[in-house]
Design a protein that fits this description.
By secondary structure, the protein is α/β, with parallel strands linked by helices. It contains 21 helices and 29 strands. The strands form five sheets. Strands 14, 15, 16, 17, 19, 20, 22, 24, 26, 27, 28 and 29 form a twelve-stranded mixed sheet that branches. Strands 1, 4, 5, 6, 8, 9, 10, 11 and 12 form a nine-stranded mixed sheet that branches. It is globular and about 75 Å long. About 8% of the residues have low confidence. InterPro entries: ARM-type_fold, eIF2B_epsilon, LbH_EIF2B3/5, Nucleotide-diphossugar_trans, W2_domain, W2_eIF2B_epsilon.
Amino acid sequence: MPPKGTIARDSIQKKEDDNTLTAVIVADHYETRFAPFLSNQGPWCLHRVCNVPIIDFTIDWILRTEINKIILLVSEKNLDYLKPTEVRWRTFFEQFLLISCRDPASIGDALRELDLRAIISSDFLLITNPATFTNATLRRQVENFRARRKANRNNVMTLIYSRSSHPEKATIGVKKADGKLVLYHRADNPSRFDVDKNYFLDDVVIRNNVTDTGIAICSVNVLVQFSTNFDFRGRDDAIREILANEEILLLNIHVDVLNESECATQINDYKSYLTASALLMDRWLYPLCPDNMFQPDEYVFVSNGQNMYYGVEKEKIGSLAGTQSKAILGSCSMVGASCKIEQAVKVVGSVVGDGTTIGLGTRIRNCIIGRNCRIGRGCLLENAIIGDSVTIPNGYQLEKYAILSSNLRMPADPLNRSVAGYALCTFAPDEDDEGLDFDRVDGGFYLWKLSSGYSMWSKEVKLGNGAEDVFSHADSVDENVLTDEESSPETAEAEPVAVFQEEIFDSMTRILELSFTPQLMNNLILEINSSKLANNISMEDVAKYAFKTFILLNACKTFIGFKELALKWKGLFTNYYKPQKSQVQMLMAIEERFGAQNEDFNKALPNMVHFLYTETGLGILEAPAILEWHESLDASSPIRTLMKRIIDWLKEESEEEDDDDE
């Protein structure tokens, strides 16, 4: 949905036609796993993440780039579903086209249709997955692409990757000198490829610390590859063709990696669906976050500052309609509008759709729940995806990694089959749905599964047979599911972060109630470190969330209170914020708190940074960290204006020091 005021106005300024890119988005998703939610419900891109249509988040970040033309490629059967999206967004772009394709069976079919119509005649941004999100403006990547094209017209594509500490990610080989791609990961396993030893003699760098963002900058030569190869189904086919036949085609592909301060993610399966939801709510993709999105309906999202979001009718802003007092919400949680929630309900790391009812004492963790659901009392739901209008009876304990399609009415008695890793539906798959199989289960349900044997939940998990299933029972899920989970903690990213922040908030609150002594700071540091180890939190995340939690304390509601407590707790800050990267995380915590319905905090932000920097204040921040953080801010961020005097002052100080050195 269109973003708020100043961002939108800045983004729709006139841009030069000669040099700007067109964004091409393939609106249909060809991932078989999502088929249970596509029957008569429109394309996957209109399903919701954080109670906002997926496509709106994607278009919103594109609006923050230089792009002023968008082409949405959509199948004829889904064309009418996307017309409201066109109406909602077209005023924000110079051109917004919906291009219908007749019965496309793959991304390749859609791109061949686009090339056949000769609509694209210059370079373009290609997004083959409509659920692709980033907070990057791509300014540097676009400039690099143009420079390469100017030097050699055969440089036809730049693949954009993001940095990642989780080695589930892609493995690629690039030339150290210019970032040219020479080795691309295997189709069946993104973490591996087959490599000839001669590549190591050509100054090739092997990288396995990056993730494919799904974003590519392309010349029209890329479309030609699809038109001349009718068997190409996706972007990877074109990449491998160019690499395999480089001496014949004379085409080159390069790789560009986002800065560390920039984040990107895609939704490719249900595991990544939960991860993307958590990243958006936890503001890792800021300014792309739920409370920066306008709803076309009569309500908006309100955040209370701990990344807990509520859908509130516009005339009731300022009152959370009773939800806050009834539900115990952990961080990274959202409750939609018109929900009815009884006492002692606990929701952590989850999204609850509009109009849903939740009964007394129910616990929900790491779930996405659709609209108009009816969840009974005393239920336990964890790591699950639940569609719209689903009814769950009292006391029901749903297995982890279950997928419930819309309009299900779960029986009071347990099913005769495990649903972990499968999709439970009231209908069988279409005969045309290739790659899907099903089993009938008691109650007239159909248990959908992939013919390949892989889990519906995640691309990384292959199911066994019968009792040997990786997802056998809820009691054994923790031991068996996702065999490489220990080396890939992103599998349940929302949970450890939420637990860590909740634990240190409790520790800080408890210490505030005691008479202060220096030993209390030592105790607090020990508790934070213990929680860090227990929840497998990185030091950078400790730096971010420790300060983020600190500024949420009641004692820090005013700037005076913040200064007094910060000086008293100086031992905490000197322990964690000596490294520059930790100082940047501190500033990012302040940035994320900015704009969360707290005008006093927003006005005090420059004074807060100044206090944290100067020796007469806390003296924790250093100028390079402040300048690095300021440089990473979005060009349209109001924080840039607020910080201008301080930034100018720091730059003058730096120049004077340089002059003295000379």
